[in-house]
Amino acid sequence: MRIIGGALRGRPLHAPPGHAVRPTADRTRQALFNLLEHGKLTSTGARVAGATVLDAFAGTGALALEALSRGAEHATLIENDRTAVAAARANAEALGLAAATHILQADARRPPPAARPATLIFLDPPYGQGLAEQALAALQAAGWVAADALIAIETGSKEALQPVPGFAIQDHRRYGRAAVWLLTLE
């Protein structure tokens, strides 16, 4: 696992051993960032460069760190697993991104109030548990979702994303065992 693009392209990322953390595959992450930087939703403005990022269910922090490598301004990572939090901190430090990140050990379904809303939000929960929908509603209620935010949700490729009141699905793509959904506020 590595940073795919930007200033830190090729730098390694480390994940804790075991199956507790399922990092987004390099191929899926590359496809997602291609959508964010060159897809049909880019006409509404830059989606990565200058973004305030929230990476919920952050795991190793790969999505947030990739965004920072590509010019995002700041990233907050929310992760519940202690081992994954340690891995995300170690990755941010190793990449020299600790000052641009804020890592919270918390449950994304019960997040703390936002210090500032995010313009680019990643949700990569465990597959098949309906956690993305719960977390998105909770994050919005806690002030994490900016009015112009773009939300990228990763699910299993055969999962359906249930509607979340106030959000509209703008795009949906499948990449092997993963699917990516892009949402905006209605």
3D structure, described in words:
By secondary structure, the chain is an alpha/beta fold. The chain has one domain (26-185): Rossmann fold. Helix content is 24%, strand content 27%. The chain contains 4 helices and 7 strands. It has helices at residues 26-38, 62-69, 82-94, 131-141; strands at 52-56, 74-79, 101-105, 118-123, 145-156, 167-175, 178-185. Strands 3-2-1-4-5-7-6 form a 7-stranded mixed β-sheet, with helices on both faces. The chain is globular, with a radius of gyration of 15 Å. 46% of the residues are buried.
Task: Set out the fold topology.
Blueprint: H1 26-38, E1 52-56, H2 62-69, E2 74-79, H3 82-94, E3 101-105, E4 118-123, H4 131-141, E5 145-156, E6 167-175, E7 178-185
Parallel strand pairs: 1-2, 1-4, 2-3, 4-5
Antiparallel strand pairs: 5-7, 6-7
Keywords:
186 residues, Rossmann fold, 7-stranded mixed sheet, alpha/beta, 27% strand, globular, single chain
Helix residue percentage: 10-25%
Give the overall form.
globular
Major sheet details = 7 strands, mixed
Quaternary: single chain
Instruction: Assign the CATH superfamily.
Output: Vaccinia Virus protein VP39
Mean pLDDT: 92
What order do the helices and strands follow? HEHEHEEHEEE
Briefly, what CATH class?
A: Alpha Beta
CATH fold-level label: Rossmann fold
Q: Radius of gyration, rounded?
A: 15 Å
Low-confidence stretches: none
Q: Ends: how far apart? A: 35 Å
Give the strand tally.
Answer: 7
How many helical elements? 4
If classified by CATH, what would the architecture be? 3-Layer(aba) Sandwich
Question: How many domain modules?
Answer: 1
Fraction of residues in β-strands: 25-35%
Strand order, sheet with most strands: 3-2-1-4-5-7-6
